[in-house]
Each structure stands twice: as structure tokens, then as C-alpha cells.
Write a structure and sequence with these properties.
Length: about 400
């Protein structure tokens, strides 16, 4: 049976994949071409340099893989670490959990710091664990910058300070899948050794392009492990193969051409708006969403304002209500895609993604739809209250700084 036609645009408010700007979509409509031609580097060489800017990196190396964010997690771990190496990781949501699970399955010895869902990485605890590690057995600290499952942003600058205060040489790996390109990210200042991004969130592209920004220290760690018998196996994600080709503008295997053209256009969009404006816009849209949640009389999953994420808000539904019903109804009745609660918070929260290519009125559409779906499902929310609160805030707070 053919799917039911729903007139008008689907309102996509999951926290990735995000809306793709029309000009980026058009830029991806390209015929196939020879990725080993003499002209191909004209596309690729500037991409490596320009991509670095969204990571806030001046000294890093960018690698582009036909992969999603999960592949890039693997790339960070397998290029730098050896079997049995100890790593320190904070767990406070589904994505930090999955990355830890991967590290364990790869044969790493993961020291897990459990934090309540709705909070994030605790720099003081990280510092203590590193101070206690007198022999420097811990080789890397893994942190998810923006936990998409709970709408929590951790303070990576503070984590860096904690590592330095402990005088510990561990590498710092940061998952920026739902932050890079939307939230301020300073890979060089924070000395992030592997910063991990996927194409389908702040970069406003389809999924399928995995991006990593690697510090000189991590490049050295990868080179150092090359001859070791214990090094983790890596083939597809081996940086060495990419290094040999990338500086010439080529890849060791077939790249996804449409995604590379899309990346060029998406970066142009971000730079035309200005990264500072992009970050400010996400902050304003995040705050407007939170104003709506407060007006509904509901709470966010983020337990304190310091954890608030400006790319995704997880909204806790009242006891006895199944959040999945609100999500399903919003989709079927109002053509609005909201994010589901994952794992521990399944059925307890729904998420509004406010990441990527959006503005005031698109966000207000999502807030209106969420409100209507909640009311239809018997939640005692005053009609129009969220929209009124968010629109008042948005009228007073322009999206652009300049
Ligand atoms: C914070 C975070 N890390 C990692 C991932 C996994 O990325 P992917 O689904 O692109 O493999 C996601 C996906 O949503 C994410 O939000």
C-alpha cells in the first residue's frame, strides 16, 4: 500500500538528521565524476582547511570518511590505542553509553564514571581519577560534549582544565556529533585530541560523512602504535592511508561525491552567516524552547540550567503519560517529527531538536505541534502557552548578533 500523502512539508524536529538548506540539496545534485582526476583536488583541498574552522582548530588534521558518527568513534579509538589500554569515560546518556560499549567491545579497559542522566561530565571527578592514576595507565579521556539523548551539554573547557590540573598526559577524545557546527567548539584551545562529528546535524547534510579533527599529539600516538603487536586493528579507518592521499587532494577509496559537494555548500552557508551568529542563533532558539517548556509547566531532562543544550531539549512528560504516544500523534496528525526518548528515558521524554537550518517561525511550528499533540493526549497544557512564551522571547531576542 502506498504511504499516505501528507500535504505540506514534514516538520523535521528530531535532533538529526536535520533540515538540509535548499542550496545544499541542490549542490549535491551532481553527476558522478572521476575522483582521481587532475581537477578533483580543486574541490577537496580547500575542504580540509575549511572544515577545520568549525572545529575551532588551527593545528588539527581533518579526515573525512564515508561513515556516520559511530564510525568516527571507532576511528578515534582504533588509531590511537592498543588492546587493554585503560580509558576514562563518563556515562550519562545513550550516546555516552554506546561509545563506552564500543570501547569495551574493541578490547579497551574502560573506567566508567556514572553520572545521573540529565547531568554531564564531572571535571572534578575526572581530575581526581587522573590524579589517582600515578602510573599514567589511563591513555585517553572520552567525553560526549552534547548528549543528544538527554539534551545535556558538558563543559569541555573545564574537562581540559581538570586534565591539566592533574598533570596527566591522557589524550582527550570529544564526541561533538550534535554540537560541532552549532555550539561553540574550540578544539585547539581545549586541546581536544580527537574531535568527532557527523554530517547530519550541525553540518546540515544527510548522514554518511564522518569527520574527525585530530591533534598533532594524537597523530603522534597513532604513528607510535604502528609497529606494536597490541595495536587495535584498523583498516577502513586507518588515518595513515588517508594521510598519504589527502595532502594530494585524494582518498584511499571512493569518497561520497554528493556529500563532498554538499559539505562545500554547507560550510559556505555557515561562514556566510558567521560562526558566532550560528552559535548565537542556536542559543536563542534553545532558550525559546525552554521558555515554552516552562510555560507548559513541564521540566526538561537537563537537571540544572548549566546542563542545558542549545541543540536539543528533552521534555519530561507527566507521570503516567507515554511520551511515545505524543510523538506518534504529532507525526501522524500534524506531520511533525519529534525525537523519541531512548533507553532509560524511553516513554518518559520527547525531544525537540533545534539544530541546523532553522529560524524563529519554523521553531514555533514545532512548539505549536508539540503543544497540540500533548493536549490531544490529555496533558493539562494551556493552549497557546508555549507558543506565547517562546514568541515573546523571540521577539525580544534577535537571532543574529550582527
Ligand atoms: C552525540 C551523538 N554521538 C554519536 C551519535 C551516533 O552517530 P551516528 O548515528 O551518525 O552513527 C549520535 C547520533 O545521534 C549522537 O547524537
Amino acid at each position: 500500500m502506498a504511504a499516505k500523502r501528507r500535504p505540506g512539508r514534514n516538520h523535521l524536529f528530531v535532533p538529526g538528521p536535520t533540515n538540509i538548506p535548499d542550496r545544499v540539496q541542490r549542490a549535491m545534485l551532481v553527476p558522478s565524476e572521476d575522483h582521481r582526476s587532475v581537477e578533483f583536488p580543486e574541490l577537496t583541498k580547500p575542504l580540509f582547511e575549511d572544515t577545520k574552522k568549525v572545529f575551532g582548530s588551527t593545528d588539527g588534521t581533518i579526515f573525512l570518511f564515508p561513515a556516520s558518527g559511530t564510525g568516527i568513534w571507532e576511528s578515534a579509538l582504533t588509531n590511537t590505542l592498543a588492546r587493554g589500554d585503560k580509558v576514562l569515560a563518563s556515562r550519562f546518556g545513550q550516546f555516552s553509553h554506546l561509545w563506552i560499549d564500543m570501547a569495551k567491545r574493541l578490547g579497551l579497559d574502560v573506567v566508567v564514571q556514572e553520572e545521573a542522566w540529565g547531568t554531564g561530565a564531572d571535571p572534578a571527578k575526572i581530575e581526581q581519577a587522573l590524579r589517582d592514576d600515578k602510573n599514567h595507565d589511563i591513555k585517553a579521556v572520552m567525553v560526549v560534549h552534547n548528549e543528544t539523548a538527554t539534551g545535556v551539554t558538558s563543559d569541555i573547557g573545564a574537562v581540559r582544565k581538570a586534565i591539566d590540573a592533574a598533570g596527566h598526559p591522557a589524550l582527550l577524545f570529544v564526541d561533538g556529533v550534535s554540537s560541532i557546527g552549532s555550539l561553540p567548539f574550540n578544539a585547539t584551545e581545549w586541546k581536544v585530541d580527537c574531535a568527532i562529528a557527523g554530517s547530519q546535524k550541525g553540518l546540515m547534510l544527510p548522514a554518511g560523512l564522518g569527520v574527525i579533527c585530530v591533534s598533532p599529539k594524537a597523530i603522534k600516538a597513532a604513528e607510535g602504535s604502528a609497529g606494536s603487536n597490541d595495536r587495535l586493528a584498523r583498516v577502513y579507518f586507518d588515518w595513515e592511508d588517508h594521510k598519504k592521499q589527502n595532502h594530494l587532494g585524494y582518498f584511499p577509496y571512493t569518497p561520497s561525491l554528493p556529500l563532498l559537494y554538499g559539505l562545500r555548500e554547507a560550510l559556505a552557508c555557515l561562514f556566510e552567516e558567521g560562526l558566532e551568529n550560528v552559535y548565537h542563533r542556536h542559543h536563542v532558539l534553545g532558550e525559546a524552547t525552554r521558555q515554552a517548556v516552562a510555560a507548559w509547566g513541564l521540566k526538561t531532562c537537563a537537571k540544572e540550567p548549566k546542563w542545558n543544550s542549545d541543540t536539543v531539549t528533552a521534555i519530561v512528560v507527566p507521570e503516567g503519560v507515554d511520551a511515545a504516544k505524543i510523538i506518534k500523534h504529532a507525526f501522524v496528525r500534524y506531520n511533525l517529527a519529534l525525537g523519541a526518548g531512548l533507553s532509560e528515558v524511553a516513554g518518559k521524554v520527547f525531544r525537540i531538536g533545534h539544530v541546523g537550518d532553522l529560524n524563529e517561525l519554523s521553531l514555533l511550528g514545532a512548539i505549536a505541534g508539540a503543544e497540540m499533540s500533548m493536549i490531544d493526549n490529555g496533558i493539562n497544557v494551556t493552549p497557546g502557552s508555549g507558543v506565547a512564551a517562546a514568541s515573546s522571547y523571540l521577539r525580544e531576542n534577535p537571532l543574529s548578533k550582527s
